[in-house]
Queue: 3 jobs
Job 1
Amino acid sequence: MTTSQTALPIATTTTAAVPCGVNQVANGGFGDGTLSPWIFAGVGTYSFVAGHNSNTGLSLTTSGLGGLVPVSTAVTLEQTIVTVPGTMYRFSVYVNNKRGNSGSTFSCRVGNLALNSFTVPTNININQWVLRTFDFTALLPVTVVSCVLTSSVSAEVVIDDVSFERPC
């Protein structure tokens, strides 16, 4: 009796990169007046207000716990995005600072590395839309985008046109 062995190909699964210039953030303009699929958490509120170039942006407000010993509070907004490891992406968001003090900050981060982030005080560029952007390379097949407003006093920012895409 003769036996033979046949090598079978190994099946692999890969995620194809989304074409360049396509925003992978769902509801990045908040135009439908809902938060989904964003996740909101923290001590504060969110509301829909006039946006950058639209009728709808997202206002994030912390309550702040001032007093003799000020205690910072924070609100966080996050969304998970499917990415291709090793691929470069660009994150951008329009930010309109409304109020806060020199210790109040708004930051956005992609993944867990501080290199993939920005932080700005909320007491500058009041009532002005400013585009914040940075490039990064994805390390994992999913990446969490998170934005955080932190303050020991009542602070507010409005964000709009959140974008996460491969640059062309």
Note: The mean pLDDT is 87.
Job 2
Amino acid sequence: MSLVESLISKFEMKLMKQISLFFLPLLMMLGGTALAEETILERESSAGLTHEERVWLRSHPHIRLSPDPDFLPLEHIDESGKYTGIAADYIALLEKKLDIDFKILKYKNWDEVIEKAKARESDMWGAATPTPQRLEYMLFTKPFIELPAVVIVRKNIEKTLSLKELKGLKVAVISGYGIHDHLSMNHPDIELDVVPDISAGLKKVSFGMVDAMIANIALASYYIEKDGITNLRVVGESGYVYKWGFASRNDWPELNQILQKGIDLIDESEKIEINRKWVGLKPSPSLTFKDIAIPFISVLGLFAVASIIISNRVLKKQVLKRTIDLQKELTERKRVENLLTRNNRLLDGYNKILEMLTAGHSFQKVLDGLVFLVEQQSEETICSILLLDETGQKLLTGSAPHLPEIYNEAINGMNIGAKAGSCGTAAFTGKRVIAKDISSDPLWEDYKKIALSFDLKACWSSPIRNSKGKVVGTFATYYKTICEPSKEELELMNSASHIAGIAIEHHGYEEEILNAKNDAEAGNRAKTEFLSRMSHELRTPLNAILGFSQLLTLDTDQPLSTVQRDNTERILNAGHHLLTLVNDVLDLSRIETGALEFKIEDFSLQGALDETMMLVRSLAEKKGIKIKARPLKEETLLVLADRARLVQVMLNLLTNAIKYNKEAGTVDLSWEAIDDKKVQIRIKDTGMGIPKEMIEDIFEPFTRLDRDKIKVEGVGIGLSITKQLLDTMNGTISAESTLGEGSCFTVELPLAKT
């Protein structure tokens, strides 16, 4: 069946329903049933209520009812403000049977109805389903109508769907309705799109903004027909059944009991009549054609046939117009989808180009990758990237893998200018140049011959700029047909030029960094060579001075006087200090340049520390400092390090602990293994301490504490050398200090594997 035939069939069914609605009330009037029903209602008024319930009603003469303003066929506030629908008809019966006065409150949507009930500004709802959330503040009668919640999708989805198949899909539900609460609590894996009303949800499904909608079948059917939506279908039930009853505030349990008794008074024929009025019509078994005037049927039949014929023609025009509109909509949607797909693919490609930059790929490979990416967007596109030379006057080939080699050679080194083809002109003016026909474009006068010889008929070129806005090259696209760019193609050129600018600027930074690195390495080599020569030039006379001074002190044939001996001692001390300084500076230089050799091996920690203690013992005795050396645990520890460099480190730390200690102070040297992977050595003194704000700076070269107040020789590079030596041996050093009490330096080194 075609779409037109389907719509016509639906129209005919609708028309027949309208005809039935026209004469069924007439038949009921002929039967005289209305008078009988009125008599029954009067007889049942206030029936079944207890004395206490009647008293309660008299003390609450007006019950405030807030219906859903847009919930046909259940309930609705029409344009004139009248309350209509299934629930409204039930309320009308309760008013007659129970003699209750209901005051209808009108709110703009269901969410506001809920809020007013919570605030006790409304006493009851006309039709609602119980949920755990609503039961916190409302009581519910038994349902007076039950309808399933169904899954509604576009007609292009043919398979049956249940809640299980909706996992991961976007599903519309009406805000605050029972199915909204049910899905939120029991099916969190379904992505809900909460809409304010049924009409909004159905339109979202129709336009493809959501995958499906779940709503009760009566409400959905009514609004699909009302809004003229033709591309939706029901594909399954959700398993959730709407059971609508009256809801009343839970602090008035009497009202809930009264409402339930009122529902119980409504007989089956009254319920059938209400349902037939709003949900569907069934022929009355009490009526026959003998009771109906045959002329009326004939006239109505002729009228129906005439109406169908006329309506068919109108409907065909409407369907044709709607079909054309849908085709346009689908075409535009397809175009947008294709554009989004291309843009997403392009964005992924740009990200990969930028990743290549950060990963250190060659500049040529990055440019080629960008050209390949843009060429993939269209089979007819041939791209090139040209780079401005250092003079800013010539263009050099950066990447043009699919242009003829002879053509690339011809334009490589071309001068930029006001009439230098697309690329030369774009680089000169800083503006995009579009040559849709090279053969007739005046900018190509000097280059069109070679371009046309390779069947290149159009060329669009965009200037490439760096982050400062300076032109650094051009990005061009060639075509073998006469053409001009679309809006999307211009946007593609702009984005590709931007990425090219980033790549070119990054390449420039790399060259600057490489040059700076080479300069730094050359400076380090010069510094190392200078220090090496200076070390040799200084050590030779120093060794002579120290040697002759020692000979003077050892001469027994011509012994020195006391004054001469003191002066000679000063010469020896100054010479040793200067020699230590030269050695330290040379070590620091070698460490920084990586020229200092290390021999990493396993050795006994105890032996290295014993050697260090022997070297500092005389200095400690001279200063009156007592050294305590002890392992925290009795164990043999092997460390993985350079033994000579570890002795140098410990000698430096112990020497500092002695020199900066107070008179008759102590130095505590202790060590132990921790976590079976490293050893911890602690040197603790009772000296002056280090201010907290200077702890972080003490390992920087040429840093000394209060050098003007403390009369201790040194230039402040010992701790810097110590830290760098430990870093090279995979060790660490840290310091803690309390001003006026002393300091503690902690060294950690890896244990040897046993």
Note: The domain at 360-594 is CATH 3.30.450.40 (Beta-Lactamase).
Job 3
Amino acid sequence: MTDFVYFITSDKIGSQDPDLGARLMYTFFLKLVQAVHLPAHILLMERGVLLLSESLCLDPIKVLEGRGVEILACQTCLDLYENAPSSLSTGEGYREGGIFILRCARPGHGSYYGIKERMGAGKVSDMPDIIEAMQTAGKVIHL
């Protein structure tokens, strides 16, 4: 292991094309598994926590965890997605009479309900642990 961490705040790389962004994130993790130098930690915040549940990235993340990379997921972020339908978290909706109306998915249908129970890797962490991992690393790389 070398002295760096990855700080990931999205389930995609880039913001222009969601499908391409998801594919790029998956490729990133596949190539990271093959890398000579592994990070000490992978820190997941915001939508990055979604990579730990029903994501193509989950299998390579499990491999990295098995090789000693500590995967930390932000508790506050998980709490937000635990009870939020996916349409709520992405802001999908429509305008009606100058008011923005959010469309909400039903539980189990395009939602993040139960994300903590479906986490396939990593551990729930808090801000002090994430800050400590950043401060003790020689380099923090943000994706």
Note: The first strand starts at residue 4 and ends at 8.
